[in-house]
Each structure stands twice: as C-alpha cells, then as structure tokens.
Amino acid sequence: MLTVPLLIVVSYCIISAFAINRDEYLDMRQKLLDQERQMRVGGKVELCDSELHVNAILMKLKGKELEIARRNVTLFPPAVHFFRAKQLIDDSEVFKIIRSMPKGM
C-alpha cells in the first residue's frame, strides 16, 4: 500500500508525465473511483429517498460504534471471541435496526 507522501509524488509524476492540469487529473481520478465503486456488490443499486435516509441513519450509528471501538478495542465485536462479543452485538443499535429489517426478496 502506498503511503500518503509517496502517493502525492506518484500523483505529481502522473500529472507531469501526461501534461495535464491538476483539475483534469482530479476529474479523471474521481471518474476512476466512481467506476470502482460501481463494481462493488450492490454498486449499481440506486436507493430511493427513504432508503437514503435510513442508510444515513445507519452510517451515523455505525460511525459512533466505530469511534467507541477505536477508544476501547475490547468493545469492538470482531476483535473479541464470539461468546464475549455476543452481548455487544445484541446491544448494537445498528444490529437492532438490521435485525428488524425484512430479509430476502
């Protein structure tokens, strides 16, 4: 994996080698990232407004849970044995929402 300073150097070399300006490079880079995002599982699924709203709520809750995990690794379920993590999973707001959602088609 490239480190940030090396990534900056490589990016500068690409810009210089192809004689494109910074804005063109950033535009090309964003298009590449968008293409890669669409290649992910579910990448071509378009969410309606209500789904986007629920997703925003879930992502906010997920961010809070990850922040707690960063401060205390013993509270991060993937980092501990399942028997110890089970209660953490059951108490997770994200898991409570996901558990209540319909499954399948």
* Structure class: mainly alpha
> How many domains, as an integer?
2
Largest sheet, if any? none
**Helix coverage percent:** 55-70%
Task: Report the radius of gyration as a whole number of Å.
Answer: 20 Å
Shape descriptor: extended
Order of helices and strands: HHHHH
Number of helices: 5
Strand content: under 5%
Mean pLDDT: 82
User: How far apart are the termini?
Assistant: 38 Å
The number of distinct β-strands equals 0
> What ranges have pLDDT less than 50 throughout 5 or more consecutive residues?
none
Explain the overall architecture.
The chain has about 100 residues and is mainly α. It has two domains: about 5-40; about 50-100, no CATH class. About 70% of the residues lie in helices and about 0% in strands. It has five helices and no strands. The chain has helices at about 5-15, 20-40, 50-70, 80-90, 95-100. The protein starts with a helix and ends in a 5-residue tail after the last helix. The mean pLDDT is about 80.
Compose a concise summary of this entry:
The chain is an all-alpha fold. Helix content is 70%, strand content 0%.
Quickly list its features:
5 helices, 2 domains, mainly alpha, 105 residues
Secondary structure elements and their pairing?
Elements: H1 4-17, H2 22-39, H3 49-71, H4 82-91, H5 93-100
